[in-house]
Description:
The protein is built from 3 helices and 6 strands. The protein is α+β, with helices and mostly antiparallel strands. The protein has a 4-stranded antiparallel sheet, with helices on both faces. The protein has a two-stranded antiparallel sheet with strand order 1-2.
Amino acid sequence: MLKVIVRFLTVMMKHGYIGEFEIVDDHRAGKIVVNLTGRLNKASVISPRLNIRLNDLEKYTNTLLPSRQFGYLILTTSAGIMDHEEARRKHLGGKILGFFF
């Protein structure tokens, strides 16, 4: 589960919504310390993880994101965890993990 969270945060960092983050090992579940940049309005997970085909991607982006210009859906695909724009470029569908804007 930690690996999925780290990849989710990496996608957010790539798009400039968060700064650096570090994993703190407290010999229990562990903690992640995230530096916020002030650009993040909302981040949420989708549970249960829904299967999304490539042609259904537009429907989910319109439903979950406030506008076309900003915000990203995070998908887990056969090629790894990525945002919806990268999945569209690679012609991949997958399961939706969450979104942020």
